[in-house]
Amino acid sequence: MRFFSASIVFAAALQFASATPSIVKRATVNDVANVGYATLNGGTTGGSGGPVTRVSTLDALTTAVAGNNSKIVIIDGTITGDTVVKVGSHTTVLGAAGSALNGVGLRVLNEENVIIRNVKISKVLASAGDAIGVQASSQVWLDHLDLSSDRDHDKDFYDGLADLTHGVTGITVTNCKLYDHWKASLIGHSDNNGAEDTKITVTMANNYWTDLNSRTPSFRFGHGHIYNNVFDANNDGINTRDGAQLLVENNVWTGTDKPLYDTDDGFAVARGNDFGGAENTAPVGTFTAAPYSYSLIPTANVRASVVGTAGQTLSF
Ligand SMILES: *[C@@H]1O[C@H](CO)[C@@H](O)[C@H](O)[C@H]1NC(C)=O
Question: Keyword set for this entry (predicted)?
Answer without folding.
Answer: Carbohydrate metabolism, Lyase, Metal-binding, Polysaccharide degradation, Secreted, Signal
